[in-house]
Input
Amino acid sequence: MSARWWSVCVLAMAMGGCFEAEIGVHLPDGGVAAGDLGGSRSDGSARSDAPLDAPLDAPMDAAATTDRVAPPSDGAAGYPDGSVVLSDGAVRLPDGAVVSAPVNGCVPMELCNNGLDDNCDGRIDESCPCLPGHTQRCYAGAPAEAGRGVCNLGTQRCGGTGEFGSWGACEGAGAPMPVRCGGGMDWRCNGVIDQGCACTPGMSRSCYSGPPDTAGRGACRAGMSTCAMTATGAAWGPCEGEVTPAARQCDGVDRACDGMPEMGCECILGRSRPCYSGPTGTEGVGACRAGSQVCGRAESGRTAWGACVGEVTPTDDTCDGVDRSCTGTASRCACTAGMSRSCYSGPTGTVGVGLCRAGSQRCIFTGGGSVWGACEGEVTPQTDRCDGVDRACTGSSAACTCLAGATRRCYSGLPSTDGVGPCHAGTQRCVVSGGASSWGSCEGEVTPQPDLCDGVDRSCSGSATRCACVATTTRPCYTGAPGTNGVGVCHGGTQTCLASGGTSNWGSCVGEVNTNCLPCLTASGSPWQINRSSGPVCFGRTFSVHGDPGEYALAAIPSESDGSWVPVTRTDIAFSDSSALCGRSCTCLDGGEFTFFQTFFDIPAGFTVSTLIVRIGSVDDGVRITIHNARYPTGIVDPGSYVLLGSGGATTDLARYIVPGRNRIVLTHIDDCCSARSISGVSVELNGGSLTTCR
Output
C-alpha cells in the first residue's frame, strides 16, 4: 500500500472511518474500479458501470473491471500510488523498479476487489480490505478464463470483524475441463467450442485411399474409419478393412482392379485341364485314360501348366482281364490271370453226392499268354468206412447196420420196470469190422433184483410190500397218552427198523418218558439262580414282626437278564450266610438286606393248572413270592405269598396267576436282624407234584 493511502485512511478514521473512495481496484490505466460501496475515478468523474457486488448472474466483462482514465501528460498510464504503466505493458513502481508486462492475462500486482487472481499467484484479492458481510463474484483461475465456457464465476464473501475484513475462499467457480467432443462446449475456457475435435467419438464413415475409379471394382473395396478421442480432442482413426489395387497374381482375382485379371498370365493359378500323351485313338480304350494338368507358379513369377498327372497310356497285356495295350482285344490269353473256375474228374453223377465234391482251377500267366492250372481240392469216390460218410458217393451204405462210434440206449428187463427204483437202461456201441457194422452188447443196465428192505426198490415194482420200514432207519416215537408228549417231563423216544428174511418191522420205543407229565424247571441248567446285588438298607421305621410285608417296600427285583444272576447248585436252594446288618446303625426290624432267587417253567397250551404252591422248609427272617409272565410282565404278589419266620412253610394256591407259555417265579428273601440269614427246603408243586429239571 502507498503512504498516500494510509494517510488518507488515517485521516478518514479520525473522521469516523476510511472513505469508500479509498477501497478500490487499481487499474493499469491509472483508474480505480469502485468497490462494494461504489467509488470515483481518479479524474473525479463518477463510475457509470455496475459494482462487483452487483447480481451474481451479471456478466463480468472488460467494461466491469477495466474502466480507464486519461493517461498522464507524459503519455503513460499510472496508478494512484504513483506506479506507471509503460507503453510495452510493463509497470514502473514508485521506487523505480519495473515489473514485466502481463503474461496470459496476469498482471504484476493484484487489483483489489475485482474477484480475480490478477497476478496469478493462486490467491484472489489477497491483502485487499473489504467490508465484512459483503460478497462479490470471483474466479480462481487465470483472469482470461473467467466467465468463459465451463469456467463459470463463483462467490467470495468478506469475513472478519471491525470496519474492514478479508476475502474468503472462492466457492462454486468452474475450471477448464478435458474436452468432451460433441458436447458443444468451450471446455478449455478460451472461446473455442469443442477444441481439437474433428469429429464426434463413436461415429464412423466410409473411407478409401486408392484411386477413385478403382473402389468397388475387382477385389478393391472401401473400409471404415471410426472417430476416437485423442490427447488433444477427437480425430478420425485409420481406414480399416479397405482393399486397394495390388499386383496381379494370375489367380483369377482382379487384384489390380482394372477389369483384366488374366492379362499377362498363361493360365489361371489353380485351374486344371485334361491331357493325354498316348497314341491317337487309344484314349478311352481298355485301361488308357486321360490325366489332368494344374496351373502353377512358374520361375518367372507368372503361371504355367504343370505335368500331365494321372494319365494311363498303352502297355503290354498281363492277361489279368484288363486291356492294357488299349487295342480292344487280348488274343494270347486263354483266361484271365488270377481267375479260378470249378473242376471235377470223378464219374458223372457222383459230384455233390456223399463226400464227393468239385475242386477249382486257377488261371496262370505264362509270359505273353495264360492257361488253366491243375484241378485242386476235388474229392472223388472212396471205399465206405461205416462212419456216416458216403465215401463211395452212391447215396447209400447198405452193409452198415450202424455208424462207427454211434451209441444207443438198451434195456433187457420188463419194459414196465425200466426207470422204476434203481432199474435203468444201458448203452450199446456200434462195432465196425470188415467194411460192415453191428450193435455190441448192452452195458451199464440195471434190471430187477430181490428186495432187501434197505430202502431200495430192488424189484423195481414201485413198492416193497413185505417191508414195513427201511432197515436200520429210525423214527421218533411216543406211546403215552395223546397230548402229553412234550408236556412237563414227558417226551418221545426213538424206534429202529429191524429187517429179517426179506421183511422188516419197527422195534420198541426207546428213551421215552410217558408218565407224571408235569412242566419242568428250566433255569440255565439248574433249577434256581441267585442274585445278591442288593446291599443293606434302613427302613426308616421299626417293624414288630420279622418278614413283615411292609419291609419289602425297598426291594427292587433285578431283571431276569441282569448280569449278577448265578446258578444255585441244589434244587432246594439251602442258602445260609452271615447277616450283613451286624455293626450297622439299623440292625433289627428297622433295616434289612434282600437276596433274590429265580426259576422258570413253561406251561403247554391246553394244559390245565389246578394248583401251584411254593413250599419253604425254613427261612430266617422272611420270603416273598412274585410271579412274572405275559399277563404280569412287571410281576404280581399275592397277599398269601409271604412266608414269615416261624409261621409255616407254604404259600397259598397261586394257580390263578399262571398262564400258558413262560412263567418266572422270583423269591425275595429278607434278613431283618443281626442274627441268622438262611432259606432252604424250597420246592414248587404243580397240580400236586413237584417240578423237576428238564432232561
Q: What stands out?
A: Residues 1-77 have pLDDT under 50 and may be disordered. The two ends are 141 Å apart (CA to CA).
